[in-house]
């Protein structure tokens, strides 16, 4: 807790950098800056995500805003830490209109969470890094972001990773499995399903699972 007390201001600054507008308008440049900030925050707090919940909840809520999470913020420790609105006053955010541009901030925030909660087996964070479970959700999460979420979830739930085809298949939500299997069904109407959404989600989930096996775990 004492160690986190010293690291907390640094962590807040790092999380602010993920959402900070860079000097130019180049989206790739801004995304690269956010990813670098995400690695920095994650490495500063590597595997320490559950050591000081009062501090970390504020950071995690902010990071999930950058990812585009719809879950409500944790309110248990708002008396002890600054609100996200207060923190944002000191850190410029990458905004398009009135919304955070998650296309820029999501990769860095996902990386930060994965490293902060590395091997912690945190069910709460794992569940918040959700994989799309409905047709509707598939339209709002980019396939490459789905892959990052799969990798992050497996870094968090380290002990659950197994080198088997069955484990890889278990990473794929039922709606995506059924959607891909139904593509060859002559009775299905291609106009009623988004073929690209199902195929790209399926491929990126499998790739994310294989990366989890090939490098971090084994």
TrEMBL record:
<dbReference type="GO" id="GO:0070979">
    <property type="term" value="P:protein K11-linked ubiquitination"/>
</dbReference>
<dbReference type="GO" id="GO:0007091">
    <property type="term" value="P:metaphase/anaphase transition of mitotic cell cycle"/>
</dbReference>
<protein>
    <submittedName>
        <fullName>Anaphase-promoting complex subunit 1</fullName>
    </submittedName>
</protein>
<dbReference type="GO" id="GO:0005680">
    <property type="term" value="C:anaphase-promoting complex"/>
</dbReference>
<dbReference type="InterPro" id="IPR024990">
    <property type="entry name" value="Apc1"/>
</dbReference>
<dbReference type="GO" id="GO:0060090">
    <property type="term" value="F:molecular adaptor activity"/>
</dbReference>
<keyword id="KW-0498">Mitosis</keyword>
<keyword id="KW-0132">Cell division</keyword>
<keyword id="KW-0131">Cell cycle</keyword>
<dbReference type="GO" id="GO:0051301">
    <property type="term" value="P:cell division"/>
</dbReference>
<dbReference type="GO" id="GO:0031145">
    <property type="term" value="P:anaphase-promoting complex-dependent catabolic process"/>
</dbReference>
